[in-house]
Amino acid sequence: MAKTATKTRGKATGLSLHIGLNGVSGAAYGGWDGPLAACEFDANDMTALAKKQGIKTTTLLTKKATRAAVLAGMRSAAKSLAGGDFFFLTYSGHGGQVPDVNGDEDDKKDETWCLYDGQLIDDELYAELGKFKAGVRILVLSDSCHSGTVTREAILPPATIPTQRPKNMPDAVAMRTYREHQAFYDKLQRDVARDAGKPVVDPDNALAQIAVSGRLSAIANKFDASLILISGCQDNQTSMDGEHNGAFTEQLLKTWNQGGFQGNYGNFHARIKARMPATQSPNLFTLGAAGAFLAQKPFSV
Q: How far apart are CA 54 and CA 105, in angstroms?
């Protein structure tokens, strides 16, 4: 049954959580520390943008961006916000993958965000966002690699500046990390599926096919809140780091133009995409009843 708490008076509330990691703990990733240059800049710049929009912000940088802190931030927002409110979530860092153990992924891989002390599996992210009440608008911006396919090789454009590098965990590191922490990641996936009472449908996989699948459309329509996800690249590409911003975040901020942008989320995504190279093409997904949300000016509380 949908959670239907809705505000009946007063102004909508905006909360945001901004996550940026310029590295991870080697102890959690088989000795790999994943150095990046611009992810903390990305998180701080998105924090500044949110504050100008009247949103109450929380920022988690590198060592502070732990699994516990990120989950706590999302759960606190889900508890606090009611219908009509706005939650803004951004991530800048490495994307990774673990083997899928609950059968929700066609490619047998679950995509992850590489947090400081361990990965956040996409199943977990979807489950946490599914806890928000009906009518809450959720905007997720992910400046990371989510290329978990095994049938297509990721497109890695050549770096043109010394600090530019792909924001993806190398395959060898992913395999080593999973091997050393297999029981932990397998249990996470099974716990999410158990709590959901049915196999978790991965949103990226489902939404890629939603136009041709009535069954998947029905699944997505059961999502209580309204969600817009703009990711930094397609699933066979990788987002690139930079000197002062990630490539996706840099073009997003230029498009936003300190609030000078006029248009809706669809226009916003299209203009960011037009600024990006063919090797990195941002994607747009929605979950729930997001039609009215898509028609709004970005970042509107």
A: 38
Identify the CATH number of the domain in which residue 272 sits.
3.40.50.1460
Q: Is residue 4 part of a domain?
A: no
Asked if residue 92 belongs to a domain, the reply is yes
Q: Structurally, how many domains does the chain consist of?
A: 1
Is the pLDDT confidence value at 207 over 60?
no
In-domain check, residue 151: yes
Is 209 part of a structural domain of the chain? yes
In this predicted structure, what is the pLDDT of residue 103?
A: 55
- The 3-class secondary structure across 222-238, one letter per residue, is CCCCEEEEEECCCCCEC
Rounded to the nearest integer, the mean pLDDT of the chain is 81
Pairing of strands 14-20, 95-99: unpaired
Q: What is the distance, to the nearest Å, from the Cα of residue 149 to the centroid of all Cα atoms in its chain?
A: 17
Look up tokens 């489902």; give the residue. Answer: 206
Helix, coil or strand: residue 11: coil
> For residue 288, what pLDDT band results from cuts at 50, 70 and 90?
confident
Task: List, in order, residues 6 or more apart from 293 with CB less than 8 Å away.
Answer: 137, 226, 228, 265, 286
Task: For 229-240, write each residue's pLDDT tens digit.
Answer: 888 776 666 777
Tell me how far apart the terminal alpha carbons of the chain are, to the nearest angstrom. 26
- Residue 71 burial (CB count, 10 A): 15
Rounded CA-CA distance 282/165 in Å is: 17
Look up the domain containing 27 and give its range.
16-294
